[in-house]
Structures are given as structure tokens and as C-alpha cells.
Design a protein that fits this description.
The complex is a heterodimer of chains A (271) and B (275). Chain A has 271 residues and is an all-alpha fold. Chain A is 76% helix and 0% strand. Classes of the chains: A mainly alpha (271), B mainly alpha (275). The interface between A and B is medium-sized, with 26 and 28 residues.
């Protein structure tokens, strides 16, 4: 009778005795090591954003002539979008890693470890933050070589900030799905969700150019505000508080909602 | 070990032509039934292009007013040809995954040991892809028509598009089969999909080549998929044109013949490795 309460109290007490930060750092290091051991996994993060930037800018170069388009340089529009897309791949990547750990049983060991449950979420998020910088060092220089304008240090900071936030959002979404479905096949659903979010936003064209149902969907999609925040350094008006605060509010809402989704999913693993 | 190949050739040559046809029909039917028995593998491939079309039609609706944009009722009507090719590519890769599964589970070895020509074994396996190409074309034509984007070429134009989609499906299936035969892995076939996606993107599928610029435009103009899409698009936007249909068909047939030849080459290599 007494056995169960004693075990529970021990488990609850354990997280207090193990500092959170070192565990998070260890998990980040482990995940980064996994990337170097599976170079094929880095390909999508580096290559796909470059491809999307070139493909979108090449295919749709004429759309800057549409009245209401905020720039006459197509690279200024698609370079930040490609960086954010690349950051999203970082989030998907931690979903794959976690699903693999769940399938091969390694995650059970992590659950048994005397560390706080929050570390199991914050560790992968730290990894996705690091990975969100990968496309910045490939897409941005190439984009500038191809014709994009230098966004300035404030504009660059906005792009880095938004990339990190979006990587965390996609990471939390991926973890929430993977914790519930517990296999790598579930990553298909994760990808569909992320692509749908990006498609139904101002990823391709601004609200002023959209028509029909997409205009309504993009207007209420929080990703729209994130993309506005990311792009502002590349557009004529530069970085302004008017475009920054809606992005920060949308970020807070997305992180809170998706964080809850991931944590409740993690709790289900204990059931 | 070469014994396994030589008797096959003799037996295959002795087989009456009608029996060849019978064997082809039976294997093609197996391919079609097998393909449609797994809706999970193709429903997403059929639905995803519709989602892209719906988004693009709203996002780029005003692009139709750009100078040099082809005359069309709407951007949705412009997109029909590209959507058909996109759906065909997505489904065909799944069909060739089945061939790789045949290799993985050993069924391919039984077929190769049977007195059936190797071309029949390969092409019949792509019948599922071809049927899917025809089906998805008709499906998209109906859906687009419901949303106000008809095919101006009428029934003859639709027939042209169905034929082009079927040939392209066989071509893409041939490419997937080559990858499958080379690697023997269904996963590798699936992973080869991005290459097709790139080929599709750098074409006239999503935007007119006339409005592209620089090196990207030149690559798009040389891309064989552009010729097939333009042939389809002519039937949609301007009406039936036999000349455009023939150009598109010639390119599609050349594409399919080259990928099937490549797949047969991989099959020969596979047999040589075994022997």
C-alpha cells in the first residue's frame, strides 16, 4: 500500500535535485551530434530553402509588377520566407529524432531519468533554435548575391528572432503530434500542418494582392504576423514597432498554445 | 548462375505472341488493382495539388492582368494543366514504389523466372500509374469545371490531356522503376520524389514562362515538362489543337521511352549482378 506513494514522491522530488539547464544542454548536444552522424538529415534544412528561394523567385519574378506589391525586388520578398521555411525544417527534425527515440525505446530511459519533464521539451527546442540558424548562413548570403538587399543589423536581428520563434513553434507542434502518435509516420501530419500554415499566410504574396477566401484565412493566421516581422528589414519601410508588436503577440500566442499541446502530449506518455 | 537467364530467353521467345498479350493484361490488371487497393498511398497525392491550386488561385488571381499573361478566364483555369501534371507525378511515384516492393518481397524474382518478356513485366507494372493518370485528369477537369474553369477544347481537348497524363505517368513510373531496380528499396523510390518536384517547379506548371526571366526562364523553356504542360494548357485556354497535342505527345513519348529504357538497363544490370 505504501509502495506507490513512496515511489511517486521520489519521482516528484527528483526533478528538484537535478538542475534543469545542464540536462537541456546535454540533450541539445546529443541531438546536434545526431545531425553530424546523419548528414542526410541536414540536406533538407540547407538545400530545400535554397531551392524554394530560387524556385519562387524565378517562377514568380513578375508578380512584383502587381499594384500593391511592397517591393520591386522579388528576392527581398522570398529570401526571408525561405529562411523561415528552413527554420521550420529544424522543428520537423527534432520531431523525427524524438519519434525515433520513442520507437527504439530510448525515450523510456529519458522518462525514467531523474530530470524534470520540462527538460524533455526544452532540450529539443534548444536544438531547433540552433538548427534555425542553418538556413540563415546559406540562404541569406546566396540571396544577397542573387540580388536581395542587405536588411541592416536590426532587420537581420528580426529575421533571426522570427526564425528561432518559428522553429520553436514547429518543434512544439512536432513534439505534440509525436508524443500522441509515437511513430515516425506521424511526421507526415506534422509536415502537412506546417506547410498548410505557411501556404495560408502571406508567404507568397501580401494581403493587398490576395483575393477570395485566402485573404480571410491569411488575415487571421498568426504566421502572417510572424512573416511581417521577419520581412520588415527587407522592405522599403524598414523595421518599425508597428510591424514588430503584432509579430511578438502572435509569437507569444503560438508558443503558449503549441507549448500546451506538447506538454499535454508528454503527459500522455506517462499513461 | 547464367543458367537462370538463358532458359528465360528461350522460353520467352517460344511463347506465342497472344500469350505475351495475355500475360501483359493479367499483370497490368494486378498492377491496377494493387494500386487502387491502397487509397492511402494516392489520395493525398490527388488532393494536395488541389490544395495548391486553391491557394494559388487566390494568391495570384491578379497576375492574370499582367502583360504577356496568357488569355484566360481566371488563374485557376491557367493552373489546370499544371495541376494535372502535378497530380500525375505524385501518383506515379507511388505506383513505382509498388515495383520496388515486388523486388523487396521477392515477387519480382518469380516474374523474371517466368516466360514473359521483361518489357511486359516492367510496363505492365506501370499500368496502375497510367490508369491513375487518366482518372486524376478527369477528376481535376470536373472539379475545376465546378469552380468556373472549363476546358475550352471540349471533349477532344480532354482526351488529349488524358492521353498526355497517361504517357507522362508511365514515364515517371519508369523513372521510379529505374530507381527501384537500382536500389531495390521502396524508400529510395520515395526519396527520389524531390527531383521530380524540382523538375515540375522549374517549368510552366505554376506560372507562364513568358513572365519568367534570366537563366531560370531558359531552364524552364528547355524542360520537357514545359512542352507537355503547354500542350495541355492550349487545350484548356484556347481550344483543341492537334498540332499542340502532337508536339506534347512526342515529348511525352520520348520522355517515357527514355525512362523505360533506363529502367530496362537497370533490370539488365540487376540480372547480370545476380548471375
Amino acid at each position: 500500500m505504501t509502495a506507490t506513494p513512496v515511489t511517486t514522491s521520489t519521482e516528484r522530488a527528483a526533478p528538484r535535485s537535478v538542475p534543469l539547464f545542464p540536462v537541456i544542454v546535454e540533450l541539445v548536444q546529443r541531438n546536434m551530434l545526431a545531425i553530424t552522424r546523419v548528414p542526410a538529415a541536414v540536406g533538407p534544412i540547407l538545400v530545400m530553402p535554397i531551392f524554394f528561394m530560387i524556385a519562387f523567385a524565378g517562377s514568380y519574378s513578375a508578380i512584383t509588377a502587381i499594384p500593391g506589391f511592397p517591393t520591386d525586388n522579388i528576392y527581398n520578398w522570398f529570401v526571408p520566407y525561405a529562411c523561415i521555411q528552413g527554420a521550420a525544417f529544424g522543428g520537423i527534425g527534432i520531431g523525427f529524432g524524438t519519434a525515433r527515440d520513442l520507437e527504439n525505446g530510448f525515450y523510456d530511459r529519458l522518462l525514467l531519468a531523474p530530470a524534470g519533464r520540462r527538460a524533455l521539451v526544452l532540450g529539443p527546442l534548444g536544438t531547433s533554435l540552433v538548427r534555425s540558424t542553418f538556413p540563415l548562413v546559406t540562404v541569406l548570403p546566396l540571396g544577397i548575391v542573387l540580388g536581395a538587399d542587405w536588411p541592416g543589423f536590426t532587420g537581420l536581428a528580426m529575421l533571426i528572432l522570427t526564425g528561432g520563434i518559428f522553429a520553436c513553434c514547429t518543434g512544439l507542434w512536432a513534439l505534440g503530434v509525436v508524443y500522441r502518435l509515437r511513430n515516425q509516420r506521424s511526421l507526415g501530419l506534422v509536415q502537412v500542418g506546417i506547410f498548410a500554415t505557411l501556404f495560408l499566410s502571406i508567404g507568397q504574396v501580401p494581403l493587398a494582392v490576395m483575393e477570395g477566401w485566402l485573404h480571410g484565412a491569411a488575415r487571421f493566421n498568426p504566421t502572417t504576423n510572424l512573416l511581417r516581422m521577419a520581412r520588415q528589414g527587407f522592405l522599403d519601410d524598414g523595421v518599425t514597432w508597428t510591424l514588430t508588436w503584432p509579430g511578438l503577440v502572435a509569437s507569444a500566442a503560438m508558443l503558449a498554445g503549441l507549448g500546451l499541446f506538447a506538454l499535454t502530449g508528454l503527459r500522455r506518455l506517462d499513461d | 548462375m547464367t543458367v537462370g537467364i538463358e532458359p528465360h530467353r528461350t522460353a520467352s521467345a517460344d511463347l506465342h505472341p497472344v500469350r505475351h498479350l495475355d500475360a501483359f493484361v493479367v499483370m497490368a490488371r494486378r498492377s491496377v488493382i494493387g494500386f487502387f487497393r491502397q487509397p492511402a498511398s494516392w489520395i493525398f497525392g490527388a488532393a494536395f495539388p488541389l490544395l495548391i491550386a486553391a491557394v494559388s488561385a487566390s494568391a495570384f488571381a491578379r497576375a492574370t492582368s499582367l502583360q504577356d499573361f496568357p488569355d484566360s478566364r481566371s488563374f485557376l483555369q491557367f493552373l489546370l494543366a499544371g495541376t494535372i501534371l502535378q497530380g500525375t507525378l505524385f501518383g506515379s511515384i507511388n505506383a513505382s514504389t509498388d515495383l520496388a516492393l515486388d523486388i523487396e518481397n521477392g515477387f519480382m524474382d518469380r516474374l523474371l523466372a517466368s516466360p514473359v518478356s521483361r518489357v511486359s513485366i516492367l510496363v505492365s507494372r506501370l499500368a496502375g500509374a497510367a490508369t491513375y493518370g487518366a482518372g486524376v485528369t478527369l477528376f481535376y477537369v470536373v472539379v475545376f469545371r465546378l469552380f468556373g474553369a472549363p476546358v475550352e477544347g471540349g471533349i477532344p481537348g480532354i482526351v488529349v490531356m488524358v492521353v498526355l497524363a497517361m504517357v507522362m505517368a508511365i514515364g515517371v513510373g519508369g523513372y521510379g522503376a529505374a530507381v527501384g531496380l537500382r536500389t531495390g528499396s521502396a524508400e529510395a523510390v520515395g526519396n527520389s520524389f524531390p527531383l521530380l518536384f524540382i523538375l515540375l517547379f522549374i517549368s510552366s506548371a505554376f506560372f507562364p514562362v513568358e513572365l519568367m526571366s534570366g537563366a531560370y526562364r531558359r531552364v524552364a523553356e528547355l524542360n520537357p515538362i514545359t512542352y507537355v504542360i503547354d500542350a495541355c494548357r492550349h487545350q484548356v485556354l484556347e481550344g483543341f489543337s492537334l498540332g499542340e497535342a502532337v508536339v506534347g505527345l512526342l515529348v511525352a513519348v520520348a520522355f517515357a521511352a527514355s525512362t523505360i529504357a533506363f529502367a530496362l538497363l537497370q533490370l539488365r544490370r540487376k540480372l547480370a549482378d545476380v548471375s
